[in-house]
């Protein structure tokens, strides 16, 4: 008999509770990844995310291979593929790390079906510092305000210490057929638009650990200036966290050991937690307004010329155009600029936040099913703990404040200074506020 470990958004060996639990099986381990694009709970990956997944799986396969353990790849509905691999391998135990979004009900159903067939199934804590049911208001409900949520998180027991890479993992004695990763078509080919992404990023667990160490060594003490996009102050850990190449527990405890003034950085992990807790209680976030009042807001629901100019970085607003170019070329955009760009789309151009969220979903390497729509709703004003709708980011003032020398714009969109601005900020702001005031209370 053997143990099947089913990996999802946890593509690492270190601090992997499911893998650690499998290390006690003398009959060996099979590690499985299923590319599920068929189950109804699945949101199909965007192009940039597919590129990252391909290279992350290559890295994981190599790391497992050094320990003599193959990575089994299957494509199809997980409720069909997991039991199939169980039968083919003769596994009597299935382990995985929990998911907290739409997939959790699917996981529960699969767990029940496997147990009915006599298989032992166990799930372990997933990619959160604090599991959603451990943090609640005094009335027992979920938090809707970040500051109160994070105070409650940090007032309780600290996050669990991360687990080391498990020793003693043994390969199963039974060979299970794996699909070829290249057959999944995750990489762009005609044309190959990922050159800039490949130049900036190196997916994989080892790269994630190096990124964290580099940040703690050189930039964390300057993190207070994280809003200045021309300065290298960010951690750039978000895609590694999204794919589980490093866990939030590893980041949390390593950062605390590094010492210094790290509270602001750790609070950003808290914002990530807040997004995932919100999705757990209220999701899916990409399909509906968290504040139902905004169901009546007259957003434009079809892409138009304004959207075309926005996504191409040709709005005439330098910091927005620079951000959209950075996104297209590298699969990433500075966080402050994401907010400015989202505000322009939703509150000046009048387009529905779902249109912008969908574009980010397709082009970001760190596109996350909770954080991406959560942050769009925050800017649009329709989310929990939302910026008030009347808080509209003026891109000209934001550029003067956060890119005063124009270095960020010069790097990514120097052409923008010669472009006419596609809208009048004052009039569109007035139109947005008038529509907001007309909403039913």
Automatic annotation (TrEMBL):
Binds 1 FAD per subunit. FAD binds at residues 223, 265, 366-368. Its cofactor is FAD. The record marks 299, 353, 376 as: Electron transfer via tryptophanyl radical. GO terms for biological process: response to light stimulus. It comes from Leucobacter edaphi. Residues 1-129 form the Photolyase/cryptochrome alpha/beta domain. Transmembrane segments: none annotated. InterPro entries: Crypto/Photolyase_FAD-like_sf (IPR036134), Crypto/Photolyase_N_sf (IPR036155), Cryptochr/Photolyase_FAD-bd (IPR005101), Cryptochrome/DNA_photolyase_1 (IPR002081), DNA_photolyase_N (IPR006050), Rossmann-like_a/b/a_fold (IPR014729). This is Deoxyribodipyrimidine photo-lyase.
């Amino acid at each position: 008999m053997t143990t099947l470990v089913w990996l999802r958004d946890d593509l690492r060996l270190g601090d992997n509770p499911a893998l650690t639990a499998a290390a006690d099986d003398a009959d060996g381990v099979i590690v499985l990844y299923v590319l599920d694009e068929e189950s109804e709970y699945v949101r199909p990956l965007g192009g940039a995310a597919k590129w990252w997944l391909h290279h992350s799986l290559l890295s994981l396969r190599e790391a497992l291979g050094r320990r003599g353990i193959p990575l089994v790849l299957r494509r199809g509905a997980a409720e069909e593929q997991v039991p199939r691999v169980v039968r083919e391998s003769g596994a009597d135990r299935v382990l995985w790390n929990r998911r907290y979004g739409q997939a959790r009900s699917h996981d529960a159903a699969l767990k029940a079906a496997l147990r009915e067939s006599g298989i032992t199934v166990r799930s372990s804590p997933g990619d959160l510092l604090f599991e959603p049911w451990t943090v609640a208001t005094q009335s027992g409900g979920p938090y809707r305000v970040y500051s109160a949520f994070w105070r409650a998180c940090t007032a309780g027991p600290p996050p669990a210490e991360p687990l080391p890479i498990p020793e003693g993992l043994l390969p199963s004695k039974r060979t299970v057929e794996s699909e070829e990763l290249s057959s999944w078509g995750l990489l762009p080919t005609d044309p190959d638009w990922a050159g800039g992404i490949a130049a900036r990023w190196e997916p994989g667990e080892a790269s994630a650990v190096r990124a964290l160490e580099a940040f703690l060594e050189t930039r964390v003490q300057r993190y207070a200036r994280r809003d200045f996009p021309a300065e290298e102050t960010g951690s750039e850990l978000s895609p590694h966290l999204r794919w589980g190449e490093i866990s939030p527990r590893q980041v949390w405890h390593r950062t605390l050991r590094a010492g210094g003034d790290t509270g602001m950085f750790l609070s950003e992990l808290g914002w990530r937690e807040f997004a995932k807790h919100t999705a757990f209680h209220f999701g899916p976030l990409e399909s509906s307004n968290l504040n139902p009042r905004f169901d009546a807001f007259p957003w434009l629901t079809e892409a138009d010329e304004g959207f075309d100019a926005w996504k191409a970085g040709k709005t005439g607003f330098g910091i927005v155009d620079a951000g959209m170019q950075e996104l297209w070329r590298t699969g990433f955009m500075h966080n402050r600029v994401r907010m400015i760009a989202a505000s322009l789309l939703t509150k000046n151009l009048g387009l529905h936040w779902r249109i912008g969220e969908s574009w980010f979903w397709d082009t970001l390497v760190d596109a996350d099913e909770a954080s991406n729509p959560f942050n769009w709703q925050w800017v649009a004003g329709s989310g929990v703990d939302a910026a008030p709708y009347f808080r509209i980011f003026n891109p000209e003032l934001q550029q003067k404040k956060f890119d005063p020398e124009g270095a960020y714009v010069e790097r990514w969109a120097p052409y923008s200074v010669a472009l006419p601005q596609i809208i009048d900020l004052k009039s569109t702001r007035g139109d947005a506020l008038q529509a907001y005031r007309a909403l039913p209370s």
